[in-house]
Amino acid sequence: MTDDVFLEPILPVEVVSSWYLRGDVGYRAYTGPDASYQPALGGTLGYYDQDLDDAWLVGFGLGYKFNEWFRTDVTVDYAAPSDFGGRIACIACPGLPYTLESGRISAWTVMANAYIDLGNWAGLTPYVGGGIGAANLRLSDYTGYNPPFLAATGRFGADADAWNFAWSATAGASYDLTSNLLLDVNYRYLAMGDVSTVDQIGGRIAIDDVNSHEFRVGLRYLIY
After folding, report:
1. What is the pLDDT of residue 155?
2. Which domains, from first to last, does the chain contain?
3. How far apart are CA 217 and CA 224, in angstroms?
4. Higher model confidence: residue 166 or residue 149?
5. What's the number of CA atoms in the CB half-sphere (13 Å) around residue 131?
6. Where would I find the Outer membrane protein beta-barrel domain in this sequence (predicted)?
7. Cβ proximity of 194 and 137 under 8 Å
8. pTM higher than 0.85, yes or no?
9. How many alpha carbons fall within 13 Å on the CB side of residue 195?
10. CA distance 56 to 208
11. Dist CA 3 CA 17 (whole Å)
């Protein structure tokens, strides 16, 4: 009898790497962006009481899980148009001493993300991550007028869009629904840059530092 009889069988090594698909829906709460108006004759007027309403978003992506600790994905997200509003002081205006400014902002983002999974406990995996990419901000339906006069008597900004560098920071957790389907819940901070337009009298409208807090839920499907 040889020693080979007593050798333990070689067990297969578990493969933890895989491609995955993801889909997300979420709620985006914008932080108050900075905004300014530069008249054609020069100078800069700051907005006050400016606000950008919250919006719903949807996203999808393709990722790769390298091992039990590290994964990456590329995601595309769209946030529905959100109402922007603010005021500009106007002492010389014939009505009230300000103008009412309003418009709508929507956003597309394309992000390359990386995550560190922090271990699995009974199917629950917390993680942290971040991403860089590009954001397309679209500004539309912009008007500015002096109440109580009608908006039709005011200024109108041309529809415009801008591509900007974007970055994000994420924290969340996934839960194993099955061996290859995960529920993902996460928070993401996203910085998307600026967008501007010009009105019919040559004034420049700039909306800067469009950033948001996002609360997202989605599914990840592992493709072995």
Report:
1. 86
2. 26-223 (2.40.160.20)
3. 23
4. 166
5. 26
6. 39-221
7. yes
8. yes
9. 27
10. 21
11. 36
